[in-house]
Each structure stands twice: as C-alpha cells, then as structure tokens.
Amino acid sequence: MAPQRKKLFIKTYGCQMNVYDSERMRDVLAPLGYEPIDAPDDADLVILNTCHIREKAAEKVYSELGRLRPHKDAKADSNRPMTIAVAGCVGQAEGAEIMKRAPVVDLVVGPQTYHKLPELIAQTHRARGERLETEFEPVAKFDALAGDRAVEGHSAFLTVQEGCDKFCTFCVVPYTRGAEWSRPVDQIVAEARILASKGVREITLLGQNVNAYHGEAPAGREADGAWGLGRLLRHLALIGGLDRIRYTTSHPRDMDDELIAAHGDLECLMPYLHLPVQSGSDKILKAMNRQHSFEEYARVIEKVRSVRPDIAISGDFIVGFPGETDVDFEATLQGVREINYASAFSFKYSRRPGTPGAAMPLQIDEAVASERLQTLQSLLVEQQTGFNRTQIGKRLPVLFEKAGRIDGQLHGRSPYLQSLHCDAPSHLVGQIADVVITDATRNSLTGRLVEKADAA
Length: 456
Ligand code: SAH
Ligand code: SF4
Ligand code: F3S
What we know:
Distance between the termini: 40 Å
Helix content: 25-40%
CATH superfamily of the largest domain: tm_1862 like domain
Radius of gyration: 23 Å
Shape: globular
Bound molecules: S-adenosyl-L-homocysteine, iron/sulfur cluster, FE3-S4 cluster
Mean pLDDT: 92
C-alpha cells in the first residue's frame, strides 16, 4: 500500500555538503510519502539543515524557529500537526540544548545520523499517539543511502569524504562532522552512474577535505590499498555521459602530485580549483594550525598552473584572527596580489565556543576586522572582475542548466564555474554548447551562442 502523502519542507544553510545532505534526506523520506514543497506554512515536516561555522550562521536557526512557531501552533490541534526537526551541524554541536532553548523543536539529528530520520520521526509521532506507517532499522549512513537518488537538473553534488582531522584552531567542523572518513570507490562509482543515467553531465565531488580522500579500492583491486582523489578522478572520468567533474573543498597540504597531474591529463576535470589559504601571514597560519606556510601554498598553485595554465584559482580568507596585526594583514593582501584569484570568499573571524581560537589572547576589535574585510574584499572583487573580463572574445563550452531570468535566455556555467547568460533555445538545457563571450561583470558573463548542442 502506498504511504499517505505528506508535505516536506527543508531549509538548507551552510556549505554544499549540507545541500547534498538535504537532497539525501528527501530521498530517505520519499518512501514514507513525503513530497517536497517550497514553503513551510503547511508542511507536515519541516527540517532545518543547519550550519555552525560562524555565529551568524548558527543564530539563523533560532530566528527561523521563531518564525515557524505560529505555523506549528496553528496546526497543533488539526489531524496534521507539524513536526519540526533540526538537522546538520548546529544539531550536532548543540544537541539537546536546542530543544531546551526552542521547545518548538521535536527532534534533532546530526550530519551522520539523518538516515535515522524515518525512525526518529516515527518515535516522535508515537509519543504523540499517532499511527505509524513505517519504520526501518538504522544502519550506517551511506549504506542506508545506497538506493536511488532523485535528481533535478544536470549538475549534481556527490559527497565522497566526510569530516576533518585537521583541527584548524578557528573551525568547528572537526567537532560537528567528526573524523575524516572516505566512502569506498565502488559506492561512489555506483552513485555517479545513477546520476549519469538520469541525465547529469557534471558532478562535483564533495568533502570537507575532499583531497584528503583515501577510499577503499574497487573490488578486485584491493591490493592497491586506498585510492587517493587523483586516482578516483581518473576512474570516474571513464563513466560515459559525465562530461564535467569538479571537487571541493581542498586543503593545501593534501594537493599531492597525482591530483595535480590529473589537472593536466583529464579533459573532464574542470579548470577550477578552490584552495583556501585563510591568511598570507605565516605567523597567523601557524596560530591557525594550518600546517603550511604561505610560500608552500604558493608553490602548490604554481605546480597546478604549470600543468593547467588557464586554471581559475579560488580561495577562502579569514581576517581578524586573534593576534593579526596590520603587518599580518598586509601579508594577506600581498599574498592575494601574488596569486591573483578568479574568485574568493572572505570572512571576519567568528569566535566559536570550544575551539582553541576562542580562548586565544589578542582578540581583534570588531571595527578593525570590518575595515580589513572591506579592504580585502575590494581587492578580491577587482581580481574577480579582471578574471571575468579576460574571457571577453573567447569561445567557451557552456553547460546550460536552466532558463535565465529574461525570456529566451538560458543560464549556464563556463568551465571556470562562471555564471553565464545568453540567448539560447530551451532545448539546450542539459547540453554543452559553445558561446563567444561578449561581456563580463564581477559576477557573470554574457555571450553569443555559436554552435548547436554537442552530439552527446
Ligand atoms: N575545509 C575547508 C574549509 C571549510 S569551512 C578548508 O580547510 O579550507 C569554510 C570556510 O569558512 C573556511 O575556509 C574559512 O575561511 C571559513 N571559516 C571557518 N571557520 C570560521 C570562523 N570561525 N570564522 C570565520 N570564518 C570561518
Ligand atoms: Fe575546518 Fe581546517 Fe578542517 Fe577545513 S581543514 S574543515 S578549516 S578544521
Ligand atoms: Fe557549516 Fe557544517 Fe558545512 S558547520 S559549513 S554546514 S560542515
């Protein structure tokens, strides 16, 4: 008997790994009759998939819970009461605290336990005396997720690695996502094949430290020992239909030679590398426990550029880490000038409870940090705009993803992950076609279609 249809609303905060997790939560809940909707008001189940990385991110969940309360209250006496779940990294970090601070929450799951959602929801309903439609045994997350994947569009995320053992002194991830763990190669290949069979042409392999990947070799190749990311990429490149592969986020210390070589050898590996450095000052890098100098970082970039000269380099920066002086900040600006970024994310240091950085002396004044952030961001914007403008006049293969904002236009991505709009017929969605770039701004490119869809 088909389960009764119910409405599911998931709100996702934070990084791409949360985006992936939200998709998988939908997959896990689909057999129970849950169908995604776009607004929480009338939902049977609301899941907030949360992020703990900065204070602002973590606080957002509490404001959202406040907004949900009247909706939940309004449905309380109906035959379809609302269940509210907090998932993700705030769930992991604050656990039972959330239910105390926000009694509107019915259940909390962490990033490694959301495969248990059906069971936890069942328990919640049982506690309310509701009839249960189904239950299932909790098993390890990715085993539980081995089934089908609902796919929207032509570009998909695929988590290959979880957690982090690096313990940068500012960061909560090792506490919220746990120890570094890699999925076995066969499991990843199986998921990638499902995606390809459903029309996905681009996959982005995800991990908090995706290039620390060391997964169990495929069946029959056990003698190889664990495979690194470079090897995994070569293997995935053989899957028909997957024209584009990306990966994120990487740590400079894990850029090994095999991975760097892949950037020169694999046509489907897109020329874009997100490699955060956080600071240009060796003193600050040391205090952050990044375990590399700026010079070592620059050398990695140089090596990647030597095999793939056009590669777009992206990064993350933190300003105002404890002890950061004007001289340290100047070193960051100098480092940015040296690398010349195609894009970057930059943040003011946020003091996270329980991390070593929070207890360090010489915390930086908010106003100083804000000013530094502004200075850094203007430089990064200048570089990003400059990079985008270097594409003008070039012919680039674009993967069209969806309709654009203006009628008759499509939105797509260049190999360098730039957003692009151009006039194109709607049947090109999901196709890769050549576009001559006619204009560029800070955030996007515009162009003229020069070729019909590829034969594939
Ligand atoms: N694993 C990745 C980063 C994951 S977190 C890496 O090692 O690079 C994503 C980004 O958030 C980080 O690169 C960092 O720039 C930023 N970030 C993490 N913790 C932060 C904090 N406490 N305050 C401000 N920014 C932070
Ligand atoms: Fe956080 Fe550092 Fe791990 Fe990245 S490498 S997730 S910044 S602890
Ligand atoms: Fe945030 Fe957790 Fe990702 S803290 S950045 S959602 S790993």
